[in-house]
Amino acid sequence: MKKSICLIISILFVMLSLSFMVRRSQIEQPLYFYFNAQDSLMSKKYSGYDKITSKGIGSLKYIYLLENDNIIFTPKEKGDNPKRLQIASKDTLGFNVKTIKWLKNYNGIQRDSIFLRKGNRKYYVIEKQASDNKLYMVEVVFMQETE
Amino acid sequence: MKINIVVFRRFFILFTMLCAVLSCEYSEPHKDALVESETMGSRRIVRQVKTLFEAQRLKQDSNIFKGNLTVDWQSLSMQTKDSTTYYVFEAQTVEKWQVESSILQDDIFNVIAFVNNNNEIEVSLLKIKPHKESPVQDYSFFNLESFGGMLYFYNLEGELPLIAYWEDGQMVESIENELIPKNKLHFSTAKCAQKVVRDLKLTSKCNSLDPDCDSNPLDPCRGGGGGYVPVVTYYYTDWYKIYSNGDSEYTYTQYNGSTTEYVYVSNPDGGNYSQSAYSYYNYYASGSGGYYTNTAPEAVAPKRVILDTTFQNNDKANCTFEQLLENSQLKRLLNDFFGEDAAYDLYFEVVPNLTCGNSGDPEGCTSNNLKSEGAVTIKIDQDYINDVQTPTLFIAQTIIHEAIHANMYLAIYNHVNGNLANIPDVDDFPAIYEEYRVLNNWQHEFMADHYIGLIAQGLQEVHLRLNDQIFIDDLVNSYPDLTLEAFYTNLAWIGLNGTQSQTTYLSNPDNLANYSICYEAAKSNSTKTPNCN
Asked: What top-level branch of life does the organism fall under (chain B) (predicted)?
């Protein structure tokens, strides 16, 4: 009798674990990108040499200059006041923040796959505001532009 | 803190008004309110209410709700309760915003005013939205007997601080928009309630992929009783061409804006409850006492070309686009963009000081928002269009050029997501994509190699419709060695500077001379006046 109960509990445990894993797998991990709005340079903490362009301090557009294409993030909430969540510098270590170097590991088609595939992945830009020298996280959406 | 006090005060005022509707035994409405309004005090208040309302309307002219509301200032009715006199005026929206509904009766609007304790006049808008099941009556702020449906109290800023759900002349629930009471939403945990409050504000729904919040036997988002779901109404006008033989042809869809309302949905069966507008429609579609499906049906968006008002209001852009719609090449691009059943939108806008990625001073720009918004947006620079030196033929060229970019973006999006890529004149897009993707400025390289002919044909077709025959005749007479096909082919290269194909083409001195002749001739002498007929 005890064995049966143990077996049932074990099966239930395994099923619940699998069920949880299946559900978790449906959520793609967010991608975090770091910008320094003060001097338009990628933070040395994450990448020592890759230059980025941020169109004006407090601008709504953030552009990676890549070899073949522009990759642009715009705040998810349109308007001049996107929601900015202040974060502590040490917190960014847990976000696995992405850099230009990381992006350049992929070719153009792979990058398109990362950003264009249907899914529920969220993107965040971590920016350093010039006004108060603090870090803020902004949810952004990916877009491309061609003249 | 000051803001909170103001918000609280407004909410308090509206709530007081709701209580007045609910619990008070009104005295009979004044039989002859118009006569009473002739008294000095009433006339002053009516005048002030009108001034307040109209002043706010001017400030909020872009607001769909108020911009289309007309108030009958002669329709005053008054009632007094607890020393407060309420002044109510009938109002209605302009007919074009009325939406036929199988579940709701037409909206009824009241403008309500009263004098508060500080001797200030408070003005609100009340929208009464009766269910179909509710007896058909002339409901008003003073007459809600047997009423079933929703009451929406708006302030003059167009915000919706308070809504209430009624059945059989009694209020069932009320809700304040910014601080939705958690217990009213029947969620067992504060976490999920906060999440749903956030989702409601985003007019979204309970995230169906959140393991804490859906498809879970212990789903805290589930629950009987009911709740509020956001219903977003998008307003569009479809425009058709009507031919003399009676046939009609779809041309484009004009986007007029959207409104969001929160609708209370009761759930007597206590079954699954999905916080989405779709559930709301499912509920009513299934009849009274139906239940919610936990899986919202796919939103089937019609294929749409949406012209922003900035585009519509610019004759040079809009009329040239209208002429292009007669163009078989642009039709091919649009048909390929939308395919048979695509749910993507193509927006056209005119914007001042256009920027495009890191480009310097672009005439046009195509933005790919397919993942985030299911749309591609084509923007044309306002200064470029309005420049007296910009012929309409160039604007047509820019539109065709950007429409090809739109097709490429959609093709990539489809390809990356494992769908058949739609793009004209290309049988194997994945292979082409692989080949060109490694190039800088690859879309222009691709366009230069594959679409010069399509652009040239499109320009030749539309030019006949731009009222530019004098220029065409002069061109033929002035340059007898230059064929019209060559003229349009040279114009097709505009915007492809720096591509390998254009560099090769212009490396031929004859081509370079012809390109210069064609460009300068068109710029100097082609018509700048749009053909809006």
From this structure: Bacteria
